[in-house]
Amino acid sequence: MNNRSLSSAWLASWMSRVSGVLKVMTGEFERRHGFAPGTNEVRRADRDDRAAARVLAQVSLASADLLTFYDSIGGVTWADVGNGYFVAPACDVLQQLKEYGAVDVGADRQPHGLVIGSNGGGQSYVAGPGGAVYRTRTASLRT
Asked: Which pTM does this prediction carry?
């Protein structure tokens, strides 16, 4: 993105491109693997998702790009890409924040962020307040 802010137009284009690739990938999946594919989609944000994004906007840990993402994208589920890749809906991010608070990323307990997804193989994706997304095995829920 070249240090520019994320835009809803770019996200719509990205969603269209990725959805086309997922359709091709899953079209031959059962024939090649002998079983039906799981869910593989980029889900467009609906009214409830956008409402959750507005609530998330009140959280100081949510960057502008994360809010733009959640205003456009309701969730990402790629069950059959590698171990799987998942970006949780904004309502799930809010629920986890309510239950556990922000997470610590790394051994030095800094920075704090929001768990927004996982790769299905033990790694979490944590969005920091500055917009960086960290892939980590060490994000720890504060209790």
From this structure: 0.85
